Amino acid sequence: MAAFIFWTIEALEDFIKNSCTQTTYPKLCFDTLSTYANTIQTRPEILAQAALNVTLDSARTVSAAVSGAGGGRLMSPREAAAISDCVESVGDSVDELRQLVAEMEGPVGQDFYVKVGDVQTWVSAALTEEDTCMDGLDEGGFVGGEEKVVVVRERVLRLARLTSNALALVNGPAPVQAYKGP
Length: 182
Known about the structure:
Pectinesterase inhibitor domain-containing protein; signal; single chain; enzyme inhibitor activity
């Protein structure tokens, strides 16, 4: 006879909330992942994959926004260079995350953890790209296009936080323990 376990949405959300405590930005983690509670259930490896997918979706959105930030009102050469660097860095981040998500597609199982080294490398590389963008924007001294730089900075900062959370969920004890066995 098969045993069925039925989880309440509250129990599933509690699993996500507890898992998110291992991240640097637990509120952002919970807010972005709780909508996937029924898919995640109480499976740490699905939670990690969901975090990676949320991060990729955000990276694509940020990439489009950053690419569009250079248009409109004239910017100083310094502002234009900072935005251009961000376009390249966030684009690289999207490429790295896309490769990672493609690598992780398929059934979730033991194979997910065989690939953890790749996951850590690609997510860390994406975070480095986002930090590179932030460094250029943090140099200050912007005039004219400063409001665009502020908006881009806020979006890239949120993306970096999502990326950091995804890395924490992949590195954290919950996903690794999922397949340690007895």
